[in-house]
Design brief:
- The protein is α/β, with parallel strands linked by helices.
- It has two domains: 139 residues, Rossmann fold (3-Layer(aba) Sandwich), CATH 3.40.50.720; 174 residues, Dihydrodipicolinate Reductase, domain 2.
- It contains ten helices and 15 strands.
- The protein is globular and about 60 Å long.
- The chain starts with 5 loop residues before the first strand and ends in a 7-residue tail after the last strand.
- Bound molecules: nicotinamide-adenine-dinucleotide.
Length: 338
């Protein structure tokens, strides 16, 4: 008898379509989908290897064919769907942010722990070759002591639907795509001790949340840094996505023409004085992250973007919102919802 494949149901086919596409290519996965938008379901069925489309989330959760769910739904649905999925013992991959606030996040984390299922946040940046390599260089000590980290995520974004509502989003730009940049900052710099933020809505007047944020950071190890995110920038000036400065060198991810990871290190004299572009594998972060989720389930491993990382990213965002509201620096960890 053929070995049963792992049944994964992707819920929500916005960005979830790319998750579905990744699973669709895997020989050991049966792909299930669920979306209330019939056009999106039709498109996925036409383009991908879909075993079955469920009409409702509840129907998918009740199905014994489904071993795991991939929740790619609006932020205000994350908590309820994840709690229900945990209740029926399904493994969970959930799009970032894990939830809109720490209370919701902790409910999800506790439920997953209680039932003993895998819980992973879909933070593809941790799997992006540039970040993986940069972390490796830092760990090898090639930059010496790190003292300054900058992350910039600038672009023009068209918001609509649930993203217009601060309540449904849990905030604005920072809790949405900005949290990827938060994850990049934390994965490069470690635990954060203090944040001081300023934010505003300058361009996307139709949304309730902020479209732009600036945060100054002090890491627990003493490193300082900053994070700038915006959905309102149509023509960004020259900037790197991330830059890490150490006592023995620097590295950065250049965007656009000649984009990629660059390093200059006095510990690698063979590279010379000029920055050198690093060879990186060309892989899709989505494919690597979806494969990681599958392997964590099949091999009973803990995801590298598990509850701890998901919560740390969200805690940073919540602290930044508090700082912007009060005009005061905010210390981490936040004393709430533990
Ligand atoms: N990793 C990334 O790069 C990335 C990019 C974009 C969005 N996201 C995250 O993905 C999640 C979804 O965002 P999005 O941009 O895809 O949103 P979206 O609005 O484009 O897609 C959400 C989908 O959920 C469906 N849906 C809503 N209610 C439903 C229900 N009751 N049953 C079934 N389907 C339902 C909608 O029809 C829609 O197709 C969010 O958490 C967001 O932050 C991540």
């Amino acid at each position: 008898m053929a070995k049963k494949k792992l049944g994964i149901c992707v819920m929500g086919l916005g960005i979830g379509y790319l998750h579905a596409k990744s699973y669709s290519k895997m020989g050991d996965v049966d792909l299930y989908i669920c979306d209330i938008d019939k056009e999106k379901v039709k498109r996925a069925e036409a383009e991908l290897e879909v075993k079955r489309a469920f009409g409702t989330i509840e129907e998918a959760l009740e199905s014994p064919e489904v071993d795991a769910v991939d929740i790619a739904l609006p932020h205000d649905m994350h908590r309820d769907v994840a709690l229900r999925a945990a209740e029926v013992g399904k493994n969970i991959m959930i799009e970032k942010p894990i939830a809109r606030n720490l209370k919701e996040a902790d409910e999800i984390i506790k439920a997953a722990r209680r039932v003993g299922i895998k819980l992973m946040v879909a933070e593809w940046q941790r799997f992006a070759p540039s970040i993986v390599k940069a972390r490796e260089f830092i760990k090898r000590g090639l930059l010496g002591k790190i003292f300054l980290i900058q992350v910039n995520q600038l672009g023009l974004f068209k918001v609509g639907g649930w993203r217009l509502s601060r309540e449904r989003m849990g905030g604005g730009n920072l809790i949405d795509s900005g949290i990827h940049a938060v994850d990049a900052l934390l994965s490069l710099g470690g635990d954060v001790k203090l944040v001081f933020s300023q934010m505003g809505r300058f361009v996307l007047k139709e949304m309730e949340g902020e479209d732009t944020s600036v945060t100054v950071v002090r890491f627990r190890n003493g490193t300082i840094g900053n994070l700038i995110t915006s959905w309102g920038v149509s023509t960004p000036g020259p900037h790197a996505y991330f830059t890490v400065y150490g006592t023995d060198g620097s590295l950065w991810e250049k965007l656009g023409k000649d984009g990629g990871l660059y390093i200059r290190s006095s510990k690698l004299p063979e590279l010379g004085e000029e920055p050198v572009k690093v060879d990186l594998p060309e892989v899709s972060g989505f494919e690597v992250e979806c494969r990681h989720f599958v392997e964590c389930i099949l091999q009973d491993r803990e995801p590298i973007t598990g509850p701890k990382e998901a919560r740390a990213d969200l805690e940073f965002v919540i602290a930044a919102y508090r700082s912007a509201e009060t005009g005061m620096p905010v210390r981490l960890p936040l004393q709430e919802a533990m």
